[in-house]
Amino acid sequence: MRFIADIVNADKMSGRSRKYKIIFSPQKFYACEMVLEEEGVFGDVTCDEWSFYLLPLDEDIISMELPEFFRDYFLEGDHRWINPVARALQLLNSLYGPFGRTYGIGRSAKMSYELWRDLEEESESEGQGRKPEIGHVFLMDRDTDYVTALCSQVVYEGLVDDTFRIKCGSVDFGPEVTSSDKSIKVLLNSQDKVFSQIRNEHFSSVFGFLSQKSRNLQAQYDRRRGMDIKQMKDFVSQELKGLKQEHRLLSLHIGACESIMKKKTKQDFQETIKAEHSLLEGFDIRESTSFIEEHIDRQVSPIESLRLMCLLSITENGLVPKDYRSLKTQYLQSYGPEHLLTFHNLKRMGLLTEQSAGETLTAVESKVSKLVTDRAAGKITDAFSSLARKSNFRAISKKLGLIPRLDGEYDLKMPRDMAYVFGGAYVPLSCKIIEQVLERRGWQGLEEVVRLLNGNEFSASDSTVEDNPACEAQRVVLAVFLGGCTFSEIAALRFLGKERGGEGGEGKGREGKGSARLSWGMHGDGSGSVAAAPQHCPASPTGCKFIFLTTAITNSARMMEATIEAKA
Amino acid sequence: MSRVRADEEEYWHSSKFRAFTFDDEDDELSQLKESKRAVNSLRDIVDDDDDDLERVSWSGEPVGSISWSIKETASGSTSSLDGRDSSLQKGSSSYAALPKQASSYSLSSLFKGRNKLSSFQSLSDALTDTGVKNYAPELRRPKAEYKDYSSDWSPKDTVRRMQRGKVCSLERFRSLQDKLVLLDEAVAGHDGNVITAVLIFLKRTLRREILFRELEVRQVALCHLIHFLRETGEQKFLLDLLRFLDRTEEVALSQYREHLNIQDVEKRREFLKGCIGLPFSAEDTSHIQDHYTLLERQIIIEANDRHLEMAGQSELFRKYPRKASILNMPLVTTLFYSCFYHYTEAEGMFSSPTNLKKTFKIPDKQYVLTALAARAKLRAWGDVDALLTTKNWLGYTKKKAPIGFHRVVEILQRNNAPVQVLQEYVRLVEDVETRLNLATKYKCHDVVIETYRDLKDRVQLTAYKSKVERGSAEEEKIQNILSNMQIRWKN
C-alpha cells in the first residue's frame, strides 16, 4: 500500500496526472484504506475488489491461493482470512446445495464455520432448494497436525512439489528434466494421462510403471511395420497424435524422476527418511538428534535443518533444554544469527519448543503467584499455558495406531492403508482423524484424542438435508484444510475414498475409482455457469469421493519459509 | 422514530432539488402521507445501497459546517417545521424517481449554489422564512444528526455491515463503554479485517494507556493490533505497547529485528552494539553479543582482504578470487573463509581460524568439518592429514575424526582427492560394510582386498579379481593372498 501511495505521490510531485486503480483480491482491508488515507492519496485512487475465492486446480482440488493464511493466523493470530474462507464455503454451498453434515476441529475451523453460518442465515434463499451434492464437510486447522506436513513426501506428486515446486497446478521443468536447453511449463492435473496414473503412487513404484508404459508405447509404434498403405494412413491420422502426446509426457516424467533421484541421492535422502521414521516411531532419539546436528554443521540447507528440528520437537513434545540450546546455537552459527527471530516465531507457534516438565511448571507457577498480585499472576498463568501447549503426538499416535505394525515387507505397490504415502511407516494424522470421524459420523469415542488435540471439535448437521446414506451426495466429502494441505494428504484421502468404495465388491483395483466428479466450468462471478454434476457411482454403496478445499497447497519447505524472518 | 424521520427529511431538504418544488406549498396534508411513503421507499433504497451517501459522511467534510442554516430549522418551532416538512417531502417525492443521482450529487453542490445565492433564490427565501437566526445556537447539531442517519446501528449491526464490506462510520461510538462493546462484537464476529478497523478507530480516539489496559484482557484484539503495528511499521507505538504489557523479551526482539533494515554495515554494527543491553534471555544475550562480535570481525577482515586482493600480491587471492564479501555471513561460512584464506595465521590475528574457534567457542566437530572442507577444496592434503592426526602423551600419533571417517571420505571425494589420499581414510572407516562400499565405489582396491582378506572371504575376493585390471599390482596381490596357505578361509 505504502508502495503504491509512494508512486502516486511521486507522480503528484512531478505534476503528472494519471488514473490509479487498485484491485484488491479477494477483499479490501480497512487497514489498506487507512494507509491510502494517511498518505493523502485516498481520493486519487479508485479501489475495486475482486472477490476471487476459488481456484479449481483439478477436478477434485480447489485452492484459495492464500498461502498467507498460515503465517497470519498461526503465527500472528490475525483473523483476517477467516472471512474469505467463510465466503468460499458460502459460495460452494450456493453452487452445490446445502451440506449434509459438517465436522471440524481447530479454532479457525470453528470460527470459519460460525461466520459461514452467519452469512448463510442472511442470504437463506440462494443455496436452498438445490439438490444437495456434497454430503459431508470436514474442516481442519493445520495446527491439528503439523507432523504430516513436516514429513518428506514420497508420493510422486508430493515429491515433484518438494523438488520443483508446483505453482497453481503447474510446474516448471528445468533443462535437467527436459534434456534440452530450455525449461517447460507443464500443467499437472488429471488431464495429463501419464501423470494421473502415477501422481498418487509411492515413488518406488513409479519407475516400474513408467518403463512398462514406455514398452507399451514402443510396441504400439512398432505396429506400423508391416502395414499397408491404408493401414498406415489410418495409423497416422488416428493414433499417431495420441502416441506422440503420450511419448512427450512419458519422457517428461522420466526426466523428472531422474532429476529427483539425482538430487535426492546427493542429499542423503535415504538417511533423512530413516531419521524421520525413527522420529515418528520414537526410537533412537539420540541418533536422530546427532543426525540433525550434523545436518546443521554441514550447512546442508537452512530449511531442511529447521524442518527436522521441528519434527523432533513435535514428536518429542519439545526438546530437552540441553539439546535445544546446543541445536539453536549451532543453527545460528551455521545459518546466521538473525535466525534468533525465527526461533522465537517457532516457539510461539509451538513448532519448536523447549521441554519443561509439567510438575515443575505448576510448582513454579503457584510459588510465583503467591508472591505477586492477582493481575500479574493471571498474566503469568497465561504465559505458562501458552508455553505448555503440547502436541502430545506420541500419545495420539498410539491411540489412533498411526504407526502400522509391520509383519514383513510393506508392499508399496499394493498398499494396505494410508501409510503408503509415507513408505508404510506412518498414517497421516490429519487423514486418520477424517477417516475416524466419518466412520463414526461424529466425535463419539474419540474424546481422548480430541483432548490430546486441544479440543475445539464440532459437528453439526443441516436438518433440511435428509440423512439418507443411499443418496449419492452422501459419498461426496469436502475436506477443508485451513492453513494448507499437502499432496501426500490428498493422495492418502484419495486412497481412502477408493478403499471405501472398494469394499462394495470391486476389490482393491485401481479401477475402483469413485467417479463422482465435480466438473468445473470457468466461472466469472462464481454463480450461475458452473456445471456441477457428480455423476453417479454405480456399484459401491460405501464409496466416497473427497473434494479438497484448501487455503493453499503447502509442503514442509513452504511452511518453514513462512516462519523465517525475511531479510529486508 | 419521527425524530429520525424528520432528520432524514432534513437531508432531502438540504439537497438542491428541493428548489424545484418550492412553490407547491398548498394542499399540505393530502400530500403528506404520500410523501412519507415516498421518503420511506427512498430510505429502502438508501439502506440497501448507501455507499454513495455514506461516502459523504466518511470523507466528512463540509456537511456539518455549512449546512447549519438549513438544519437548524428542524429543531425549531413546530409550525415552521410543519411548513417546511411538507415542502420538503414534496421535494423528496418528486425526486424519488431519480434516487441514485441525487445522492451522488451530495451536499457540496448545494453549498456552491447557496454561496452564489443567485440560482437558488427560492431556497434561501425559504430559509429566511423560517428564521435562521433563532436557531443559531444549535449550530453543530446537524452533523450529529446526519451521522445518525448512516450509522444508527447497534454495535453488532455495525460489525455485521463492516464484515459485508460496507463502509460504516464509527465516530458515533464515543463513550469508552460503546467502544469496548464494539470491539468485543468485532472479535466475536471472527473477522480480522473488522477487528483491525475497529482497532484503528480506537487507537485514534483513545489515550494509549487506556487502550493498552483494555487490550490486555482482550488477547485476540491485542494480537491484531500488534500485527497491524508491525505491518504498518509503527515501531515506537509497538514498543510502547509491549513495554506496557511487560513483554520485555518481545521488546528486545522487536528492536533487534530492526537491524535487518539497516544496510550500511557500520551503522548495523553500531545498532547491534546497542542491542546487547536489551532485556533478552541470558541465552539470547550471548547470541546477540556473538552477532555483534562477528560483524565487527567481518568488517576488519573484509577491509584487510579487499586491500590484499586489490594489491594483487597474494597468490591465494589471485588464484581463487573471492566470490562475495564476507560481511553478514554466518559464522560457519566465516570460519570456512578464514580456513581458506588465512589458515596459517597466528592465533593473535582476528582472521585466523583458531582465533575464531576460540572467540565463538566453536565445537571441535564443527571446526574439523569446516576446516576439512576448506583445505580439501584447496587440495592441501597435508593440512588434511595434520588436522586429523592427534598425538597422545607418549608421542604416538593417531588418526581421529570427530565427524566419522565416512564423512571425511565423502568430503575428500567431493573435492576430487587422489586415490592414494582417499584410500588412507577409507581404511579407517570403522563399519566394515560401509568401508567395503566406499572402497568399491571409489576404487580403493587395496582396501577392498585387505578387507576381504581380513574377513577370510575367498569367494568375494576371487570375484573381485575379475574387476581389477589384468596384470596390475592389485591382481598380483590378490593372487598372492589366495595362494597363501596360512589363511583359513571361511568359504
UniProtKB/TrEMBL annotation, chain A:
Keywords: Protein transport, Transport
Cell compartment(s), UniProt: Late endosome membrane; Lysosome membrane
Pfam family, one: Sec1
Gene3D superfamilies listed in its UniProt record: 1.25.40.850, 3.40.50.1910, 3.40.50.2060, Syntaxin Binding Protein 1, Chain A, domain 2
Family: Belongs to the STXBP/unc-18/SEC1 family.
InterPro entries assigned: Sec-1-like_dom1, Sec-1-like_dom3a, Sec1-like, Sec1-like_dom2, Sec1-like_sf, VPS33_dom3b
SUPFAM superfamilies, per the entry: Sec1/munc18-like (SM) proteins
Membrane disposition: Peripheral membrane protein
Main localization (coarse): membrane
Signal peptide residues on this chain, from the entry's feature table: none
GO biological process: protein transport; vesicle-mediated transport
A cellular component term, taken from the record's GO annotations: lysosomal membrane
Domain of life: Eukaryota
Name assigned to this protein: VPS33B late endosome and lysosome associated
Automatic annotation (TrEMBL), chain B:
InterPro entries (alphabetical): Spe-39, Vps16_C_sf
Main location: cytoplasm
GO cellular component: early endosome; Golgi apparatus; late endosome; recycling endosome; vesicle tethering complex
Membrane spanning stretches: none
Single GO biological process annotation from the record: post-translational protein modification
Location of this chain's protein in the cell: Cytoplasmic vesicle; Early endosome; Late endosome
Molecular function GO labels: protein-containing complex binding
Record's keyword terms, sorted: Cytoplasmic vesicle, Endosome
Name this polypeptide is given: Spermatogenesis-defective protein 39 homolog
Organism: Ficedula albicollis (Collared flycatcher)
